[in-house]
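Researcher: Next sequence.
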Amino acid sequence: MSIQMKIKNMRFFILPLSVLIFISACQKQSQPPSQISLKGKPFSFEVESVAKLTISKNVPETQDVWTVVLTKDEQKAAWLIQSAPHGATLLDPLAHSEFINHLLDTLRTLNITSQPDSGPLESFGLATPRYALRWLDFEIRIGDYNQNQNAYYALINNQVYLVQGSTMGMLDHLRTFQTLR
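Model: Next structure:
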C-alpha cells in the first residue's frame, strides 16, 4: 500500500476525531465560569495577592454583630483596620496580621462536601449569615451548622453548599472584634 493510500485512509479517521475534539472543547467553554465543582476547594488564590478583606459577623445571641474592613499596608507588610465596627475611631489601626493571613490561608483549603436540597436561604441560616467574608473577587457567607453532615451551610456564587475545613475553627477563634487587634 502506497503512502498516498495510507494518508487517504487516515483522513477518514482524523476528520471525525477532529470534529469530536472541537465539539468537546466548545461544550467545556460554554459552562459558566461561576460553576463550582460539587466537591473540592472553591477558592484558588495566593494569600499574598489579597490587599483588602471585609469580615462581617452576626451572632445575635452573644450580641456580637459587626463589620470590619482590613487593608494590607505593603510597605509595613501589615494589615490595618480601615473601617472599625460601628464607625468607631481607632487610635491604633494595626491589625493582627498573622491571624488574618492564617484565616485567608484556611479559606484556600475550605472543602465543599455536598450541595443540600434547595430551599430558602433562611432555612440554611444564610439570609442573615453568621459570617460573611469578601476578598479579591470572592465572597462566602457562612450560616448554620448541619450536625448530620458535620458541615456548615455556605453561600458561594449564589449557590448553597455544605463546607468543612479549618476556616470554621479560625472563625470560632474570632469571638470578638478584639481578636483582630
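Model: The first strand starts at residue 52 and ends at 59. The chain has a mean pLDDT of 84.
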